[in-house]
Design brief:
Mean pLDDT of chain A: 82
Radius of gyration of chain A: 18 Å
Oligomer: homodimer
Shape of chain A: elongated
Largest interface: A-B, 44 and 44 residues
Largest sheet of chain A: 3 strands, antiparallel
Strand order of the largest sheet of chain A: 1-3-2
Strand content of chain A: 15-25%
Number of strands of chain A: 11
Order of helices and strands of chain A: HHEHHEEHHEEHEEHEEHEEH
DNA sequence: GCGACCTTTTGGCCGCGAGCGAAATGTCAT
DNA sequence: ATGACATTTCGCTCGCGGCCAAAAGGTCGC
């Protein structure tokens, strides 16, 4: 247990892992810049993360692209943030995290932040999903509703057997939001409909002008 | 994020935290022995864990009793184990963890291991709780059934507002088991009915002779 | 092929922090 | 008060591991 925690415990490695939370692959050099260390140092860190089973690598030409080894690792990292956040903000009234991230961001492969919460709330109000305590389940009515969004939860999605819908604790809103296959499919659909877009090299999500209208109408989302 | 992970990343501190996963308070000297370090070193570690908000302390006479600061910390630790376990056992066919722990143990303040899974399965079969994907909810029928066990989920339980029932991933069985207020109440009831007992200074749980009969009849649990 | 580029390996420096013994602090028992 | 015990603080040593510059692998474009 200590071995895994030790890997995350170094600031440079933690920054790299945090960057990989966007579920996209990053080259070694890119991660070196993000971590603020030389390429040599970064390479050493990445080797450790690889040996520790926290990340996986895909060699492509002269680049080597690193990504988190599994959704479990992503969940672990978000869990760490959930424990960390209250400690940091305990003595600070002003939000320490950039507002763009609080507003809308990706959490591994699904949406989080105010936008993620707004969508979750709407699906609950619709009766599309049901939440008891901290648990989420998709209803039959929900499957039909999602069909209109061209989302078929029963379609094979490549990444083997994976829970259809899982709660994921949002560390900025302190509430669970949609994760699992449903969360991933929603993010994908919103992206390729052009309602939202990724922001440069950040996990932040930007709402496009056409997206603003659609998201307000369908999910009652108003930018904060 | 790195700060919290760094604290767990030291073997001595990890051992201490692991010991505290039984949700009981441990004196500083006891934790020093468990971690295999001197009292002076242990004191330093405990101070760090305290400053980091991972543990809380209660001074009682000349002893100082340490415990985990919150259930969230316990969840984080179990999450770490879930990521760690597969890495360790990947190249080992034989179980590395003592069988007593796989059989029945406490997981913070509820039951885990084969016994915990057996109880969870029975409650699902009864229709007392419902599991969708990885989510658990208590049904009305479940509340009545629990009433026969003298468990009232609506009774105030001291520890403020806390989810009635939460899934908790079992790192030895790789399946979710009952946690939350329900899990805690079940453990408490089984203990004070004398069906199970804590084992010395371990998280292992021993089934008593009268308990063996009751657990087989009610939950279909057969010792492995 | 050759040069440009990305990445990893090697070697060496250096600081953080884990470790202990000894002393100090605080608490209980008599 | 005095001694026994639990814990913390202090001062110190020492090794692990992060860091970089330089060199070595690989891969692509020309």
């Amino acid at each position: 247990m200590a071995a895994v925690a030790r890997l995350i415990g170094d600031p440079a490695r933690a920054n790299m892992l945090d960057a990989m939370l966007d579920a996209q692959a990053h080259s070694a050099g890119e991660l070196a810049t993000i971590a603020g260390v030389s390429a040599a140092t970064a390479s050493g860190h990445l080797r450790q993360l690889l040996d520790g089973g926290l990340v996986a690598v895909a060699a492509q030409g002269r680049h080597r692209y690193y990504r988190l080894a599994s959704p479990e690792v992503a969940r672990l990292l978000e869990g760490l943030m959930a424990v960390t956040a209250p400690l940091v903000t305990r003595h600070r009234a002003t939000p320490r995290v950039p507002n763009a991230l609080r507003e809308a961001r990706t959490c591994y492969d699904h949406l989080a932040g105010r936008l993620g919460i707004a969508i979750t709330d709407t699906l609950v109000a619709n009766g599309a999903v049901r939440i008891d305590d901290n648990n989420i389940a998709v209803t039959d009515h929900g499957r039909a509703w999602l069909g209109e969004m061209a989302i078929d939860l029963d379609a094979p999605r490549g990444w083997g057997r994976r829970p259809v819908c899982r709660p994921c604790l949002d560390w900025s809103e302190r509430r669970p939001h949609l994760a699992g296959v449903l969360g991933a499919a929603l993010l994908e659909r919103l992206l390729d409909r052009g309602w939202i877009a990724r922001v440069d090299g950040s996990r932040a999500i930007r709402v496009t002008p056409p997206g603003a209208a659609e998201l307000r109408r369908r999910f009652g989302y108003e930018p904060g």
